[in-house]
Specification:
Layout lengths: L1 E2 L5 E7 L9 H23 L6 E9 L4 E9 L12 H11 L6 H4 L6 H9 L3 E7 L2 E5 L3 H9 L16 H7 L2 E15 L4 E5 L7 E4 L5 H6 L4 E10 L8 E9 L16
Parallel strand pairs: 9-11
Antiparallel strand pairs: 1-4, 2-4, 2-5, 3-4, 5-6, 7-8, 7-10, 8-9, 10-11
């Protein structure tokens, strides 16, 4: 794996009015993970792939007010090119949504990747967030979810969505069901051992992610019922959505539910 220091992303978390000088760590981690999701979504769309090319390491951290975090992209696949890393479409999409501008054909590809960040801002309003990359930065509006919903019902962009290098690539993503290998972290609930299915609740949705498991994992599932787990397997994402709705579990690991004890434990790959 190799680092790309010149591509560092800086996040600034500022307490909102009425929240005092600080905000809960839960607020911090929820938004941090939502930004990571948006970056990963943009990564896959930019590379026209079904897997991620980068992970994101916390390379700098200050918990003063405002709190700042520096994220460094780490190339994790040999068949990917580090030059493809480009979070600028995320910044431009947020800016245009806030200022009532139309998205161009390229930015439309990254639209749904902002949903988890919008939900995090709605569920945890104790801080605002600014995203900076190189000489560009944007304040993420607290009403991002409303802006996304309003844009959903607006006219489609005037530009025709095409791709000279890969004709029809946007239509491919819009029409195909997406299954990919990955993992989901959440609380395991609602297990039906007769049908071999269960539900995993995550911070980003009030609805559980449906999970299916083979008979040989029944004991492991039973032992982790109502506990925080990480499920590995084939993940399904509905057409036009950024969040998965089901996973076919291949393996599962329990996650100790312990509070964060030090800032040192907050450093590492997300």
């Amino acid at each position: 794996m190799s680092g790309i220091n010149q591509h560092e992303i800086r996040l600034t978390f500022t307490p909102t009015a009425g929240s005092g000088d600080g905000f809960p760590l839960k607020d911090f981690f929820l938004k941090l993970d939502a930004v990571r999701h948006a970056l990963s979504f943009a990564d896959k769309r930019a590379n026209k792939l079904e897997y991620e090319c980068f992970a994101y390491e916390i390379s700098g951290l200050s918990m003063n007010s405002p709190a700042t975090v520096s994220l460094e992209p780490i190339l994790i696949r040999d068949d990917c090119d580090s030059a493809t890393f480009n979070p600028r479409p995320i910044l431009s999409t947020v800016w245009k949504l806030y200022n009532g501008k139309r998205l161009d054909a390229y930015e439309v590809r990254f639209f749904e990747g902002l949903r988890p960040l919008a939900e995090a801002l709605r569920h945890s309003p104790a801080s605002s967030i600014e995203i900076q990359y190189a000489d560009e930065k944007v304040d993420v509006p607290g009403n991002l979810e409303c802006l996304l919903d309003e844009y959903d019902t607006a006219e489609e962009p005037v530009e025709t969505i095409t791709d000279a290098a890969q004709p029809g690539i946007y239509e491919m993503y819009a029409q195909q069901e997406i299954w990919e290998l990955g993992s989901i972290i959440g609380r395991l609930e609602a297990v039906n051992f007769h049908q071999g299915d269960c539900g995993i609740y995550t911070p980003f949705s009030s609805r559980p992610i449906k999970c299916e498991f083979p008979d040989n994992l029944a004991d492991v599932i039973h032992g982790n019922l109502r506990h925080k787990i990480e499920a590995f397997g084939r993940i399904h994402t509905p057409v036009g959505k950024s969040l998965p709705d089901k996973i076919k579990i291949l393996s599962i690991e329990s996650i100790p539910e312990e509070p964060v004890r030090s800032l040192r434990s907050m450093r590492g790959v997300l």
